[in-house]
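Per-record layout

source: Saprospira grandis
name: 30S ribosomal protein THX
length: 35
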Amino acid sequence: MGKGDRKTKKGKFYLGSYGVSRPKAAKVRKRKQKN
């Protein structure tokens, strides 16, 4: 669950990848959500 973890949102941002926790249409920023 760190920077290099591609399963988490932070890891996806760090690795520049996309997936379930970080979809490409990242306009879903109405409120902060913790999964």
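summary: The CA atoms of residues 4 and 18 lie 13 Å apart. Helices lie at 9-15.
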